[in-house]
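User: quick one, sequence for these tokens?
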């Protein structure tokens, strides 16, 4: 390759990166509430996700998942510093700051790092309106390229790792930035890139899709009826799931864990934002159908037929081997990517 050709390739890659950055900003800045989920997801989460997290951690998920380790650290340290990467509009960080403020805890400082200047501005304004600006602050940073070099007691990665291209650099930065007894606290996607189905899972999803009632096949986002399961690669337009399949193996190389729970692979294909509104927790046929899919999903994971697509975990800087739900260890939940 000549020098000029190499420069052209780099320019092309830079243009592609900037295009995806623009797509990512448009997506999140244009959403009034990108956390909103269908009602059936809340029902499913209350029945299956929350009890399992409760069993594993001794408390349920939600903000408590991030708050409790912060509270524990605050009891044992004069000053606790928390980083939150990909903090978006600051919903989680401001909620945590408010809870800390209500408990009169003043020795915690949370710093949110976010790509979008617009979302950083929204987060700062919200913090100001809540009166928690002394507890939480926000900075405009592209964590795909860089991350703070300060030492943190805890790092929050809330549904952000699946948006990161340079995972190796970010995870190395997280490891270096954590204190020796620190935790990387994360809830994220760990399935195939672009949130696609792995072949073995798609075979099962296709079979269910072909046999389920037509009313469940309505795509509530575009109003079209999906005769076949749409196995879409969402990473084509931005950073959505861009390297999700690499997240867990790269974390396993660098971190231990104190608590780990993995799930999904089948059920989310049916109750996501596009198709979830077709179901109601008040309709027995709907809940019975979701129960059946969840049962299939669990059996496939536990029999090692498929690997999970989502995780809830505390990863430790030290190479600990902590608690898991059933025998779903971080190592067993990695899917080999040859096909």
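Assistant:
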């Amino acid at each position: 390759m000549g020098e000029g050709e190499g420069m052209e390739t780099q320019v092309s890659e830079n243009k592609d990166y900037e295009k995806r950055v623009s797509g990512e900003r448009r997506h999140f800045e244009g959403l009034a509430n990108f956390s909103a989920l269908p009602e059936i997801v809340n029902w499913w989460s209350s029945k299956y996700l929350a009890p399992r997290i409760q069993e594993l951690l001794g408390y349920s998920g939600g903000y408590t998942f991030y708050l409790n380790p912060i509270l524990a650290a605050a009891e044992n340290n004069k000053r606790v510093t928390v980083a939150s990467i990909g903090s978006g509009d600051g919903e989680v960080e401001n909620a945590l700051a408010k809870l800390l403020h209500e408990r009169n805890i003043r020795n915690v400082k949370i710093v949110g790092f976010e790509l979008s200047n617009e979302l950083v501005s929204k987060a700062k304004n919200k913090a100001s309106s809540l009166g928690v600006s002394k507890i939480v602050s926000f900075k405009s940073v592209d964590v795909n390229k860089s991350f703070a070099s300060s030492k943190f007691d805890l790092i929050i990665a809330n549904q952000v790792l699946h948006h990161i291209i340079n995972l190796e650099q970010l995870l190395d930065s997280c490891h270096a930035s954590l204190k020796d007894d620190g935790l990387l606290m994360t809830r994220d996607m760990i399935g195939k890139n672009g949130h696609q189905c792995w072949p073995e899972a798609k075979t099962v999803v296709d079979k269910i899709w072909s046999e389920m009632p037509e009313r469940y096949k309505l795509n509530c986002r575009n109003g079209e009826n999906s005769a076949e399961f749409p196995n879409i690669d969402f990473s084509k337009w931005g950073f959505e799931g861009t390297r999700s399949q690499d997240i867990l193996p790269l974390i396993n190389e660098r971190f231990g864990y104190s608590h780990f729970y993995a799930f999904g692979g089948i059920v989310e294909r049916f109750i996501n934002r596009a198709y979830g509104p077709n179901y109601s927790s008040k309709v027995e046929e709907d809940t019975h159908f979701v129960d059946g899919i969840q049962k299939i999903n669990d059996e496939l994971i536990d029999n090692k037929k498929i690997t999970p697509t989502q995780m809830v975990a505390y990863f430790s800087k030290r190479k600990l081997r902590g608690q898991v739900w059933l025998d779903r260890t971080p190592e067993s939940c990695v899917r080999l990517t040859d096909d």
